[in-house]
Write a structure and sequence with these properties.
Udp-n-acetylmuramoylalanyl-d-glutamate--2,6- Diaminopimelate Ligase, Chain: A, domain 1, 20 helices, alpha/beta, CBS-domain, about 35% helix
Length: about 550
Amino acid sequence: MLNTHSIKVIGHRNPDTDSVCAAIAYSRLKNLIDPDHPCKPCRAGVLSRETEFVLRHFQVPAPQLYTSVRPQIRDIDIRQMPGVDGEMSLRQAWTTMRDQRIDTLCVADGPYLKGLLTVKDVATANMDKLDPHILADARTSYKNVVETLHAQVVVGGIAGRTVEGSIVIGASSPELMEKAVSQGDIVILGNRVEGQLAAIELGAGCIVVCMGAKISRAICMLAEENGCLILRTGHDTYAAGQMIAQAAPIRHFMVSDDLITFTLDSLVEDAAKIMASVRHHYFPILDNDGAYLGVISRRNLLNLHRKQLILVDHNEQSQSAEGLEDAEVLEIIDHHRINPLVTDSPVFFRNVPVGCTCTIIYQMYLENGADIDAATAGLMLSAILSDTLMFRSPTCTPADRRAAEALAKIAGVELEAYADAMFEAGGDVSGKTAEEIFNGDYKVFTCGEVRFGVGQGTYLSDRNRKASEALVGPYLETALNRQGLDYLFYMFTDVRRSSTELLFAGGGAEEVVRHAFAPEIQDGVAQLPGVVSRKKQMIPALTRAIKEMANG
C-alpha cells in the first residue's frame, strides 16, 4: 500500500510571520523530541513580503502550502499494483487478474499510464476470437504465440517477428487447404505430413504442430528454406485453435481514451462521487507529473487516514485552513483569545498571554533541553519582533523581550538593525495588488451573529503606509461583499509613532469605530494614536462596541 503520513504543523489563513515561523520552529522541536512521529511545517496562505524576507535572510525554505486540509487521495491506502506492458498477451492478462484477484489492469509505458484493461474487455475479446485476422490486426508477436500455446520453436527465430496472416485450422485435405491458406498465415495442424507440406508450400508464415507430434527432417528443411516458422505444442488442435487468439497483445483491447484517473491531490469527496457514477471497480492514481502510482477502489475510501494537525498561532476554526472539521487536531499552541474549535478527542492546548506564539515555543525548547540552531533562532526572533512591533505593542511581555534578546545572540544578529530591515522589507508595496496587500495579515472574527474581518499592515515609512492605504481603501467594499461580512476594518500601523490609521467598510462600521474609540475621523480614516495591537487593543474594543450597540 502506498501512503505516507506526517503530522502537519500549520498556522492560520493569510499567515503572518509568527504563523509561518511558529510552524517551522515547532516542527523542528517535535522532530527532535519525538522523531517517531515526524512533523512537517505548512502554511495556509500566501507569504507576506516580511515573511519572505525572514526566510530568505535565514536561508529557510518556505513551508508547503495547504489552503485546505480536506481528505485527499494521498490520505488513503493506495494499492501498489505495477503497471503492465501493453505487449502482454490476453491470456497472461487473465492469469494475472485471477492470481491477483483484481478485475482491472493498468497498462503503462515506463512510468506513464497508457490505458486500462478490465475483465469486461477480456470477455469481449474472447467473444471475438472467431475473427481469423485478430492476431495480424493486433500486430501480435510470435513470442506471445509461443507463450500462450506453451510451444517449442522447432524451426526459425521469433525475435521481433509478428503474425502477418490469418489463423487457419489445417484439418482439411491439401486440395481444400489451397483455398484456405494464404501468404503469411499461421496454420494449426496435426501430424499429417501432407498437411504440413501443403501449408509450407502455400506460403504459411508459421505452422503449429499439435499433440507434440514428431516433425520430419524434410519438413524442417523445407520450412527453413521458405522462411516458415515451425512451433510444436502439446495441446490438441481444438485447444490450440481456442487458445491462439488469446496471444493478442492487450494494447489492442485496452481503453485509452477518456480514462477516469485521480491524482494524490484529488479530494476524496469528489472521487467518491465519480466512482459511484460508473461501474469500474479500480481507478488509477497518478502523481503530479502524470506518473502512474497504483489503484484505488471504493473499498479503499473506507480506510481513510484523516490529516493530523497541530495548530499554531490560532485556535478559531474560521481562521484555519478549509476542511478543518475533516481533520484530526492533536495540539494547539497559541497566544490569542480562546474561541476554540470543537475536537473529537482531548488535545494538548497551550495558550499563554504573551506577545507571540514563538515566545511560547522558545520556552518549550528550554523545557525540553533542546538545542536551538541559528536559523531556527532567527525565525523565532523575527516572529517576536513582528508580533510585538519591536516591543512597542501592549501585547509585549517581559518574556517576549527576554526570548528575543536570547535568540538574537544565537542567531548572530544585531536586534534593532535587523528589525528595521525586516519591517522596511515588509512595508514595501511596490508591484503589489490591493488584494495581495489586504491578505498579507488578515483574520475573520465572530461576535454573536456578527462576522467581521480585521487586517493589519505595519510600516516604518510614511511613503509605504500611504501607498498601501491608497490601494487597499477602494478594495475594502469588494472584500466585504465577497466574504459576506458585516464589517471590515483594516489597520495601517506606524511602528515608529505607535499609532494606527484605521480604514473600514460595511453599513454601520463607522458607528462601531466611534463607539469603540471615539476617534477623529476624516475622509473615512480614523486616527488611533497609541493603538498598535490587533489582538489586545483592536479586537476587544470592537467586540465590546458591537455587543453594546446590539444591546441598545
